[in-house]
Amino acid sequence: MIQQEEERFLAMGRRLGFLSEAQIAQARSLSLQSSRKQKTPMPFLLLEMGHLDTEQIDRILEELIRWVDATVERADQLRTDRQYTRAIKKYSKVLQAQPEREHAYWHRAHACVQIKHFEEALADYNRLLEISDKQALAFNRRGLVLFCLGRVDEAIDSQNQAIELNSKMAQAYFDRGTCFHRKKSFQNAIQDYTEAIQLDDQYIEAFNNRAIAYLMCRQTENSRNDWNKAIEIDNRRSTIRHNLTVLLKKLGGKGPGDSPG
Fold it and tell me: How confident is the model at residue 52 (pLDDT cuts 50, 70, 90)?
């Protein structure tokens, strides 16, 4: 156990009435006197000292697991309520108790992104690459964070790895397309947006971004077709409707929703 876990164990033992303040102080003192290599885990130290029996240790551990699970639920609710800073603190407490709790890394990273704490999110996604089976998704999310940090070439590399692991991930193609878009490599961006659309023909953001890339390449007809398709998917997107209206006015055409003359 690390020190924080030991303190949590002792606090739970006190809360359950198994340990007195004097017993806790004695256990802390003996634990501090032990060298790191010879250090006895706190539960076994308390067992050797006769302060706890095996049933009491099991009960403390069960209660600690319940506490962690309850903290995860609370953190998840806070994240759903968009109270991201408070959620991050809860997830951090969970990870102090259970450093391999994958769920907490995913959700803490997401919360960090929402409040633009990109370096912290990047650290969590790097950790997920070490412990999670969802490698493609971790590379994809890592790439998104690198893009937000302005590290576009690294973001492309991360999306390349995501696509190599899962060639059916529309999100990874779209996100790599936005990287090429940022670099003004519009043909590469168009190619990736097209891959994303082939995998998900309702991918409205891919249609919108491809329309912009087409426009930058002076392919106005393709641009208009993509914006029309995007509006067909969801006509509530005011930005897309505005983009198409501006394009059509430049071309001397009718805006979306206009009646023919």
Answer: very high
